[in-house]
């Protein structure tokens, strides 16, 4: 018996019959088997179509009758192939719908389990006790904040000094340092000689002294020459 015959005759497990219908998993398995069977049928028909088309080309005009028969078979195979395409589309749509329904069922079931678990957890909880507990937590947090503020506050002896007096003392020290610096400053003395009127021109006194030195040196040289001449003449 083929898979399609089993599917349409309601072949299945005794458990599914006893429940009055197949489970979603069983139905999805059947649909996938049918899709696989039809896909193989498609491949077979495509092969036959190619074979009949090749036969029609081979006979051609030499054997018109055989060529026409081949083309007729090709048309029948193409019609069956088109029907299978439509059937596969319908099965695919049905399978996707069943998968979505099964998924939604599982989601709702799990949400129901979670709701029951939350209910069981909340059975041992008293709202009044929770309010009292939150109030105690808030009070302890306030106490902890007060202790932290007390520890981090500045010591009392820090505020014993007057800041205005300290600033006045500081200004007095700065003034003393300024006065001491003014006393240590020495101004340069004023030069006694006048500066030259033009850059590069020497004073008159320097020119006279240089001229006198040159004249004395020349006179001494002349005297040496006269002595040498007198010694040579004698």
TrEMBL record:
Pfam annotation, one family: Snf7
Bias-annotated ranges (Gly residues): 9-21
A single cellular component GO annotation: cytoplasmic side of plasma membrane
Compartments where located: Cytoplasm, Cytosol; Late endosome membrane
Origin superkingdom: Eukaryota
Membrane protein topology class: Peripheral membrane protein
InterPro entries: Snf7_fam (IPR005024)
Gene3D superfamilies recorded: 6.10.250.1710, ESAT-6-like
Basic and acidic residues composition bias: residue spans: 218-228
Region of interest: Disordered: 1-27, 179-202, 214-234
Alphabetical GO biological process terms: late endosome to vacuole transport via multivesicular body sorting pathway; protein transport; vesicle budding from membrane
Keywords from the UniProt entry: Coiled coil, Cytoplasm, Endosome, Membrane, Protein transport, Transport
Family: Belongs to the SNF7 family.
Protein's UniProt name: CHM4C protein
Species of origin: Aegotheles bennettii
Gene it is expressed from: Chmp4c
């Amino acid at each position: 018996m083929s898979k399609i015959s089993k599917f349409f005759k309601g072949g299945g497990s005794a458990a599914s019959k006893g429940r009055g219908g197949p489970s979603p998993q069983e139905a999805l398995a059947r649909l996938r088997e049918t899709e696989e069977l039809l896909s193989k049928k498609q491949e077979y028909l495509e092969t036959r179509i190619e074979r009949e088309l090749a036969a029609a080309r081979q006979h051609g005009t030499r054997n018109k009758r055989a060529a026409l028969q081949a083309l007729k078979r090709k048309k029948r195979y193409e019609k069956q192939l088109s029907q299978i395409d439509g059937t596969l589309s319908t099965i695919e749509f049905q399978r996707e719908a069943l998968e979505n329904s099964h998924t939604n069922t599982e989601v709702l079931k799990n949400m129901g389990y979670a709701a029951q678990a939350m209910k069981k957890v909340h059975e041992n909880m008293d709202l009044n006790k929770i309010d009292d507990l939150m109030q105690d937590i808030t009070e302890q947090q306030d106490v902890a904040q007060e202790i932290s503020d007390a520890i981090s506050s500045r010591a009392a002896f820090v505020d014993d000094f007057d800041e205005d007096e300290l600033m006045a003392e500081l200004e007095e020290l700065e003034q003393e340092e300024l006065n001491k610096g003014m006393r240590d400053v020495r101004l340069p003395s004023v030069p006694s000689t006048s500066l030259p009127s033009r850059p590069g021109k020497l004073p008159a006194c320097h020119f006279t002294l240089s001229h006198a030195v040159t004249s004395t040196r020349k006179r001494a040289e002349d005297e040496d020459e006269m002595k040498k001449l007198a010694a040579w003449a004698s």
